[in-house]
Design goal:
2 copies of one chain form a homodimer. Chain A has helices at residues 9-20, 25-36, 55-62, 75-84, 122-132, 146-149, 195-204, 219-224; strands at 45-49, 67-72, 90-94, 107-112, 133-144, 157-159, 165-170, 177-183, 185-192, 207-213, 237-244. Chain A is an alpha/beta fold. In chain A, the strands form 3 sheets. A 7-stranded mixed β-sheet of chain A has the order 3-2-1-4-5-11-10, with helices on both faces. Chains A, B: Residues 47-141 form the Methyltransferase type domain.
Chain lengths: 245, 245
Amino acid sequence: MKQNIYDNNDFFEQYKALRAQEHNYNNLLEKPNFFTLMPDVKDKVVLDIGCGMGDFAAICMERGAKHVTGIDISTNMIAMARSLYTDANLNFKQVPFEDFTVPAASIDLISSSLAFHYIADFSQLIEKISLALRMDGILLFSIQHPIVTASKAQTGWCLDEHKNLVHYAVDDYHSEGLRKLDWFVEGVEMYHHTLSTLVNTLIEHGLQIEKIIEPKPTEEAIKQLPKIQKELRRPSFLIVRARKV
Amino acid sequence: MKQNIYDNNDFFEQYKALRAQEHNYNNLLEKPNFFTLMPDVKDKVVLDIGCGMGDFAAICMERGAKHVTGIDISTNMIAMARSLYTDANLNFKQVPFEDFTVPAASIDLISSSLAFHYIADFSQLIEKISLALRMDGILLFSIQHPIVTASKAQTGWCLDEHKNLVHYAVDDYHSEGLRKLDWFVEGVEMYHHTLSTLVNTLIEHGLQIEKIIEPKPTEEAIKQLPKIQKELRRPSFLIVRARKV
């Protein structure tokens, strides 16, 4: 059974509230870095995996994409996306990532923002992506950093007696697979993969690494959200751009 | 002043004793993985950076290399290497990594085992390596893993009251640069670089990533050296193979 945490209503309401905040980790850390790696999408065909509320798909349309498909497992998300963005060349489909089907070599850009850590079989996903991409097409995705997903106990930050952060706990690095964590609700499921698994899986499927970003908060971001300063001490996200060769 | 810790006699004697043990981290973890990424060197020209006692250079000769140069900053190491291995096509030179000079596009394989973390300017080193490699030449190197080099305090493993390992401490990840640690003697200097810096520096200098290994101990290795089991919990090394394109 594929996890569909975004259709848990408690989770979804809290998630929407988080994303509605102007100064959150996505807006200050993940998004700006993600966009620095975005290729020109003018007249291109885009598939956005885990499209959520459709913001990225809509930006691709604004930038002149020929056609954009956003897929997400969550009916909540797809309903939101459809209500927010309407364009004949922008389609949203409620489908688990694992089950999307598109013609071979039909897509110029496959994007995915903070969704791939929900996927158990990373290799199978990348195989499908590689088949779907045109030659020279781009895969651009962000994912929870392996440093963050590693520990089975999800210990996270260790605190001293004054509740100051001492360091971040890494453990179980080579035990890839399911991790359960409490994020708004108990037992959200995600999957840990090592850095080498992530990189080598792309390469083995004909996707050449072009750049990796471990987002680092800017001084401006730290002014707006001081607690984001701790992102200098350990990376939360990994953003990867790769090219089908 | 370039650090030359291997010419500190206290350090060197202890280092030799460690490497003389049959079951050490190098023999059980780093070396076997390093060799899985080694290209065919028959009739090839090889440069080994940080050649130490010359073992890898000698193996390249055994495998039919046309010419091998080993360089190391340490006169102790170079003296050992010259006494152990003599072959007209095998040269050892005492020179800091930063100062090696070879004709452009003259080398087929540049190798380096656990030495690059001693180098302050990684980008300058990779620029020189890229110039030295022939088109399609290979850079194969191992380095301390960024998870291990990150913390300025070099806290390492956190222990419980029974001295059991609890987790590994990561901190200061985005503060790249000098780290001092006590390894045989006080204040051994090494340099921390993030994973993304390591990978992107290669790519920016025309070296395409072919594979990354974060070595994982085998069951056999754990039988021979039980304490190596903790390497399942956090990676010590990163091994990278890249091709000049």
